[in-house]
Amino acid sequence: MINFQRTANIPMTGLELFGNFPVISNHTMKKLLLLLSLAAALGCGNSFAQKATGKERVPLKHGAHRQGKRTDAAMQQWREHGLGQFIHWGVYAIPGGHWDGKYFGGAAEWIRVWNGIPKDAYDNLYKEFNPTDFDAGKWAKQAKDMGARYMIFTTKHHDGFCMWPSKYTDYTIANTPYKKDIVKTIVDAYTKEGIDVHLYFSIIDWNHKGYSSGAPTTDAKKAAYEEFKTFTRNQLFELLEMYPQIKGLWFDGSWDKAWMNEAPWVDQLGKDLREKHPGLVIGSRFRADENGKRHYDTNGDLIDDYDQTWERALPDSFEKVKDVDWDCVMTVPENQWGYHSDWRTYVKNSYDLIEMMVQANSMNGNFVLNFGPDGKGNIRPEETKLAKEIGEWMKVNSAAIYGVSHLNWKQQGWGYFTKKGDNIYLSVFNKPIDNRVKIIVPRGQAGPKTAKILGMTGTLDITSGGKNKGNESIFYIHLPANAKFEKPFVIALEGKRDKNDKEVYDQAKI
Ligand code: JFZ
Questions:
Q1: What pLDDT does 145 receive?
Q2: Atom 10 (ligand 1): residue with closest C-alpha?
Q3: Which domains does the chain show, CATH number per domain?
Q4: Which of 66, 59, 54 is nearest to 11 (CA)?
Q5: Numbers of helices and strands, H then E, in the chain
Q6: Whole-structure pTM value
């Protein structure tokens, strides 16, 4: 059966299949038809299942190059990270959302597009960039203490300023008063702490004369764009050459029409980068297919290694996750990535963020929290406080985050499930008023043998609530009535109940 499924999985329509058999006997034809209808009826294999629902797969040259998740060790490592840190740092940290005393309400790293600021003034800011307080070791230590297992650093944002001494432009850190290679310092310090580094790279570059946001129209613009493509390619290879320890590239800006029109070229670039750097992890925000479809190609398959669409947002149910790897990148205020000295929208607290982290991991996603250091190289006190509080939580509860995956038990109002091997974690954000944490175990599955709260000694009583109409087993895990919970906490369920475990049926206590 499995073998049959594999053969049937080759994406061919019935017509194409017959086209491959120029001489076909009646007998063979009947056999083939039988096979085809069988496959369709059983819903085996993608092409057939989709045909049965009326959707034809379109042959694509530059769509997804794989169906299903990557299975190699490098990707497995990425998948298990659970928590990451994003750092947006560049010359935009100097104005920090203000120019000439005026407040810019948009994302601070976008200030250059603001009408209130002359472009050439912005483009000369780098001459003042001198972050004398920058201490990569301190940042890396803080990230480690927060529990981050990977980090993403902005090598070049949309403004085009390079935080490494690129030999392909003068608009780099080498020509600031600071001079030193910031990317190298970051890569070394984080790698030393055992944190994987991924490099953010914007394919939008407002500083390059050949860059075009729309499809270039004139011959001169087309030629200039060709130069920009070569420049971009050179810079990417330069980054891999200079920082061979990095694990992935986090692309941004690929919504640009000019870039989207270059599907074959970008596809080849991706292949070459992967060849140069085996194991390289690249998300879905890198390239479009030949029909301009981004993230998911024309056939609905994920482009590249993980879904990058969850930016400042989380899926509200596991059904929204299309059985792919994904990350959620999150800002502390509503939408500020680079340093803004005056946050005026709601600022998330550590419980908001811990809940989002758990939520993401309960649906197989990694959670990545953004930091925007200031122009001198300091991480602001608000972010330091959050990192500390998340870290304190992680010290006790990280088992519910690292290497976990989705558990298909019915979600209850108290919080979220994650699982690792046979262990099940219940991250409780809303403590039930009667101190009973309810779980509904699917039909045919055993309930838990033991329950304990991470960071506390002793086990919790588990009582049975019998079976419901759907033959699912209900259990109540009893919280110690006198325990004070000041933070979200995690209950770990271990082992499986067997026939000899006496069921004590719970009586409502209120
Ligand atoms: C982009 C950048 O423009 C922004 O400055 C920041 O670096 C962020 C991480 O990425 O912003 C986006 C990208 C994608 C969407 C929205 C903002 N999107 O898909 O909705």
A1: 98
A2: 252
A3: 1-39 (no CATH), 73-400 (3.20.20.80), 415-496 (2.60.40.1180)
A4: 59
A5: 13, 16
A6: 0.89
